[in-house]
Design goal:
mainly alpha; single chain; 5 helices; binds protoporphyrin IX containing FE; elongated
Length: about 140
Amino acid sequence: MYEWVKALHVISVIAWMAGLLYLPRLMVYHAVSAPGSEQSETFKVMERRLLKAIMTPAMLSSWLFGLWTMWEIQAWQQGWFHVKLLLVVVMSAFHGFCAVWVREFAADSRRRKQRFFRFMNEIPTLLMVVIVIMVVVKPF
Ligand code: HEM
């Protein structure tokens, strides 16, 4: 049972990460498209569907199966898990900011520039690298 739960956790995490890496990239190009243009309207549909149909369900199932595995191995007693949990909470906050940016673009806002999204695009990558090292290597 435990291996099945962990497999469902990793599947959920891969879907969540795919969205977290792709959505800010879409916004890099959306930020330079003209408000009301056909291109901007297409970006709005892509961003909304990616967030609502893939990222949010994947984040919720990552937490569900992650907490389930945590319970099975009592991971809260281990140092690596404390660091991982902190970084996953930061990743979830980043997801929340993505939802704010999707809403801003839906209202044709251009207050954030392309450079801002290029920088934001790096954050989930850095978090993912440290999270995976923590859970696979378990350095402490
Ligand atoms: C959402 C909250 C999360 C919780 C509560 C959580 C918790 C856990 C726990 C307790 C395990 C089992 C570790 C073991 O059996 O050795 C695990 C496995 C794993 N987690 Fe998470 N995790 C979460 C999110 C993430 C995220 C965001 C990533 C990647 C970016 C991730 C990547 C992994 C991987 C790759 C494994 C398999 C490790 C292995 O089999 O060696 N997890 N997770």
